[in-house]
Amino acid sequence: MLAKLRKGVAPFGLVFGLGLLFALITRLGVVGLDAAGAFSYNYRAATAPYISTGSTLDQLCMALSGGTLIGFMTACGIALSLAVATVLVFAHVYPWKSGRCVAPMALVWGAACALVSFVCVGIVITGLFSGVQLHQISSKGGSGTGAILPLLFLCVATLIAAACCGLSTSLRDGEAGWVRRVLVAFVGCGLVLGVCTAGSFAAINSSPVSLPVAVGWLAGSLVANVGVMALFACRK
Questions:
Q1: Is 47 helix (H, G, I), strand (E, B) or coil?
Q2: What pTM did the predictor assign?
Q3: Which domain holds residue 41?
Q4: Segments of the chain scoring below 50 in pLDDT
């Protein structure tokens, strides 16, 4: 187990390090633009009555200006790039072999990718909005936020892990027909996981947020992710 883990330290460390570096560069860019007076803010959105109602996405849109929109898109781009890079690197570092289960390594690096992605998004986003805005948006879920965030992290981690297992198993170390296997696997399983992801987002983005509904969707997504991961991870 430790030997397999050490095998991925260097390549994944490079990927995660670059992600953090890009996030820090983006944050420094925001600071520089702000100091130069070239970064605008939506000051009306900093007042509580202005964004006290509506879904989380509505509140974000109300708080965005041109500069903060670009910053928000950059943060999301970093997180998406990390997820894609993690899946591709995993398929290279841990190629499929008959009788070998890749699920443990997929879970480890999927969780690591999710953690680094959350950190990168946090580095950028906290520089784009005022403390009032961040508090209002983060408290949208009320007392249930503490239960939703860990589940959200687990969903992201297992989703990345499922993609890692799916690509590694479908490639089968370059065996003939890998294109068809990859397409079938990701289209078929992607439809199921896409429905779960859309439902989870809708539940979290509702106004007001219903904790049982949000937790139910996230738990269902978690089960679906683990199911897809198990489907591919231990395939003979």
A1: coil
A2: 0.83
A3: 2-233
A4: 48-50
